[in-house]
Amino acid sequence: MQRQDGFRGGIQTGTTAYDASSKSLDQMVKKVSKELQRELPMFTYMRKLPKEMIAGNLAACEPDGGVWFDKDGNLVVAFEAKKQGPKGNAHERWFMNREIIRNINPDARYVTFCTREGVLQESSMYKGLSFALAVEKKDVHSWNTLHPTGVSFFGDVSGFGEEFIKEVMWNAITRK
Question: Residue 143: which CATH number?
Answer without folding.
Answer: 3.40.580.10
